[in-house]
Amino acid sequence: MGLPAVSEYKKIENGDRVIVPKRYLKIACCDCGLVHTYQFRIVKGKVTFIVKRDNRATANIRRAR
């Protein structure tokens, strides 16, 4: 997975519903630029996910600001 450009992050307002476009989703905080990668799976009919901080993408987005 390559690093998305700052303009590739979709703007999401507080309380918005998000459709997961693929297995991985990167979300950047609009205030501080902290980026997390969410990895989704369905286990026994239930959606599960793992969240990891993405230090490289965070540095990239903060540098661009």
How many helical elements?
1
- Strand arrangement within the widest β-sheet reads 1-2-3
The portion of residues forming beta strands comes to 25-35%
State the helicity in percent bands: 10-25%
Largest sheet: 3 strands, antiparallel
Contiguous low-pLDDT stretches (5 residues minimum) are none
Radius of gyration: 13 Å
Terminus-to-terminus distance: 22 Å
Number of beta-strand segments: 3
Taken in chain order, the helices and strands follow as: EEEH
Structural class: alpha+beta
Mean of the pLDDT scores?
Answer: 82
Shape annotation: globular
If you had to describe this structure to a student in words, what would you say it looks like?
The chain has one helix and three strands; from the N terminus they run E-E-E-H. It is an alpha+beta fold and 65 residues long. The chain has a domain at 22-64. The protein is globular.
Topology of this protein?
Elements: E1 24-28, E2 35-43, E3 46-53, H1 55-64
Antiparallel strand pairs: 1-2, 2-3
Key terms:
65 residues; alpha+beta; 3-stranded antiparallel beta sheet
Gist of the model:
The protein is an alpha+beta fold and 65 residues long.
